[in-house]
Structures are given as structure tokens and as C-alpha cells.
Amino acid sequence: MKLHEYISNVLEFVFSTWIDIPLEFEYMVEITATQFFYHNIALDECCRFAELIINIHTEGEFDYVFEYEPFNVLDDELSTEFVYEIDNTVNPESFAIIIDGEKRIDVHYKENLSYQDLVEKVKELDWPLD
Fold it and tell me: Which domain of life does the UniProt lineage start with (predicted)?
């Protein structure tokens, strides 16, 4: 499978029911897929991880700061001509959520969490949700 096919499959999985996809969300999935492709991570694992990332940003059940190293490039102004280039200096396998500015939870792609699983994981840690 080629990179563009891998990215296309992940985009289709994550956004299959969406009508309009915000550019930033599309880039988030493309960045995740590119990183996973070059690190030889299975497509199904990438799909679930990318879906979780997007669901965190759209469901918003708690006040959080999202940290995922490959997304640091999104701090720059984006355009429709944006093309992500692989960055081997970042960790693509996990992200962190900082809840209420102080409580950190790390999520690794191997955990295979759904959004609801993540919410339950947060609740189990006895942290209040907004």
C-alpha cells in the first residue's frame, strides 16, 4: 500500500459520515496517518487512533489541553497547500491530555481506546468532568 492510499483509507474511516470536514481536522488525520505509515503501524490501529483524536476534539466532555508532538506543525498558519513531511524526531505513538490544567493522562495507540473508553478511563481516575 502506498502512502496516499493509506491516508485516504484513514480519512474515509474517520470521516465517512461527515459532510463538511474542517481543514484542521483533515490535517490532523493526514499527519497521524503519515506518521503511522512511515512507522509501519497497521492501518486498523491508525484508523482507531485517528478517530479517537478527532472524537476528543469534537465531543468535548472535559476541559483539556491536547498534546501530540506531530501536531506541533499545526501551530503555524495552515493553507490548502499544506503538505506534511514526516518528522522522525517526534513521538507518533501516544498523546497526552492535560485535564483542568494539571491532571495528565497519556494514551498510547496500543490501548485501542474508543472515545467512550477514554471517558471511562478518566472517570476511573476519579477526576471530575465538566
Answer: Bacteria
DSSP secondary structure of 95-130: EEEEETTTEEEEEEGGG---HHHHHHHHHHTTPPP-
- For the stretch 78-97, pLDDT in tens is 778 888 989 899 999 999 99
Domain locations in the chain? Answer: 3-124
Q: Which grid cell is 63? A: 476541559
Half-sphere exposure of 111 (CA within 13 A, CB side): 17
Q: Could you give the C-alpha distances from 12 to 54, 89, 91, 109, 111, in angstroms and in order? A: 13, 28, 24, 19, 22
Backbone angles phi, psi at 36, to 5 degrees: -65, -40
Model's pTM, two decimal places?
Answer: 0.90
The separation between CA 45 and the C-alpha centre of its own chain, rounded to angstroms, equals 12
